[in-house]
Design a protein that fits this description.
With 456 residues, the chain is mainly alpha-helical. The protein has one domain (12-450): Amino acid/polyamine transporter I. It is 75% helix and 0% strand. It has helices at residues 12-23, 26-38, 42-70, 74-81, 88-120, 129-141, 145-162, 165-192, 198-205, 214-227, 234-239, 248-276, 284-299, 304-340, 345-365, 380-407, 410-417, 428-450. Helix 2 runs antiparallel to helix 10 (214-227), helix 3 packs across helix 10 and helix 5 packs across helix 15 (345-365). The radius of gyration is 21 Å and the shape is globular. It starts with 11 loop residues before the first helix and ends in a 6-residue tail after the last helix. Bound molecules: phenylalanine.
């Protein structure tokens, strides 16, 4: 292996918490409940679990092994493992996807800061549902406030990134992830003990297979990729900081389990609370930023202090989950600029932050004053979301499974997965089979479906 003077994660726990930090984000707490709500509750969750463990984890292992073997940023990784081939474009596409995702993800992440402030200054008290709708619409379309929060969120991310891999990423994950688990558990207990919460719990536990069709399978797969941060080299970049002793398969399992656990617990916060006040699960941003503050006020109308605490904690949770994800997105691009263009880490990070602020401002404005400016019929925010989540991530995942399953020398794959034969990995053959056949076929189906070429 090449001589290595790169940074490393300092501990096994750090490896798991940083990778889980990347995976756990707005995708778990905002997107997962809404997808579950739309696709039949428990039945969707069962299929989602199948997607995580059958497809997501093998691809995560593939990303891990590419990153750790090459010990380089995701663009260089493919250059090192497949010199002189076009595979390097997979890495470059990942860096671009990271940059674009960060630009619009930070807009929503910024909203969480506004909502923390709003909740902390008791701004939700006494509002009715109409007022929650209009205040969210007014806020998200205003030209100033969301931009200020977006810049603030990116500066916080920047501050952690420039501290480096161990002192920045690892340390912040070690503080934020346990805090996040504690907040989630408190919120779950509060939510499931509300009067009438049983209907929400039943929705999450009792599968209704009558709603399951091809589309549900495809949505569950798409959600699994987004939620596990797969397909754009995030976990590949993190794995380049893993040590030779890290058990890639075990780490992937831990990350998958934590990510799934958080998503399901987020469901246990949101559905029991929503059902208890008779609100149906709504879609997209409104579930978190319109419906939920309303739910908190109604559910705890007799005890305003609980409504207050519940709201502040929930948005703090959302902000922390988003932050550990924006850090991982930022790192993909920073590591690339730092290593490929010989810029100092600080300078690389400043370029990324500056670039994302620039693009992010336009994403934010595209929800308000620039609504009329569209490309292919989409505003910039929606365009970035579509381009990345629906095109670049599935395409990246497809390429990663083909690269590992077909192109890469099986000796390399074997030596990375088993740590040169020192680990017994009973599922080794299954992982290879999935990477070779199942994943490419399944991802092709999602991809084609999302582009609207077929409708299952
Ligand atoms: N997995 C993150 C979430 O659930 C989003 C993300 C996608 C982060 C891709 C990094 C890369 O919010």
């Amino acid at each position: 292996m090449a001589k290595n003077d790169r940074a490393n994660f300092g501990s096994k726990l750090g490896v798991i918490l940083a990778s889980a930090g990347s995976a756990v984000g707005l995708g778990n707490i905002w997107r997962f409940p809404y997808e579950t709500g739309n696709h039949g509750g428990a039945a969707f969750i069962l299929i989602y679990l199948g997607c995580i463990f059958l497809l997501g984890l093998p691809i995560m292992i593939a990303e891990f092994l590419i990153g750790r073997r090459s010990r380089a940023n995701t663009a260089r990784a493919y250059q090192k493992l497949a010199p002189g081939t076009h595979w390097r474009w997979v890495g470059r596409m990942g860096v671009l996807a990271g940059f674009l995702i960060l630009s619009y993800y930070a807009v929503v992440a910024g909203w969480t800061l506004e909502y923390i402030l709003e909740a902390a200054t008791n701004g939700f008290a006494g509002k009715n549902s109409g007022e929650f709708i209009s205040s969210f619409q007014q806020f998200s379309s205003s030209p100033w406030r969301p931009v200020v929060w977006l810049v603030a969120f990116l500066l916080i991310t920047h501050f952690i990134i420039v501290k480096g891999v161990e002192k920045g990423i690892e340390k912040s994950s070690k503080i934020m992830m346990p805090t996040l688990f504690i907040i989630i558990l408190i919120l779950v207990v509060c939510s499931v003990t509300l009067p009438g919460a049983g209907a929400g719990i039943e929705f999450l536990l009792k599968p209704d297979f009558s709603k399951v069709d091809g589309n549900v399978f495809l949505s569950a797969m798409g959600q699994a990729f987004f939620s596990l941060s797969l397909g754009m080299g995030c976990l590949c970049t993190y794995a380049s900081y893993f040590s030779k002793e890290t058990n890639l398969t075990k780490t992937a399992f831990s990350v998958g389990i934590i990510d799934t656990f958080v998503a399901i617990l987020a469901g246990f916060i949101i559905f029991p609370a929503a059902f208890s006040v008779g609100i149906q699960p709504d879609s997209g941003p409104s579930l978190i930023f319109i419906t939920l503050p309303n739910v908190f006020q109604q559910a705890f109308s007799g005890v305003p202090i609980l409504a207050y605490i519940f709201s502040v904690m929930f948005y703090a949770l959302l902000a922390m989950a988003a932050l550990t994800s924006t850090i991982s997105l930022h790192e993909v691009v920073t590591a690339y600029l730092h290593e490929e263009f010989k810029l100092s880490r600080g300078k690389a990070a400043r370029l990324v932050t500056g670039g994302c602020i620039f693009l992010g401002i336009f994403c934010s404005l595209s929800l308000g004053v620039m609504k009329g400016f569209t490309i292919f019929g989409l505003g910039l925010f929606d365009l970035f979301d579509f381009l990345t989540a629906k095109i670049m991530l599935p395409l990246g995942g497809l390429c990663i499974s083909l690269f590992t399953g077909w192109y890469l020398d099986k000796k390399i794959v074997w030596s990375e997965i088993t740590n040169d034969g020192s680990l017994k990995i009973p599922v080794y053959k299954l992982i290879i089979f999935i990477l070779k056949y199942i994943a490419p076929i399944a991802i092709s189906l999602i991809f084609i479906n999302e582009l609207g070429l077929i409708k299952l």
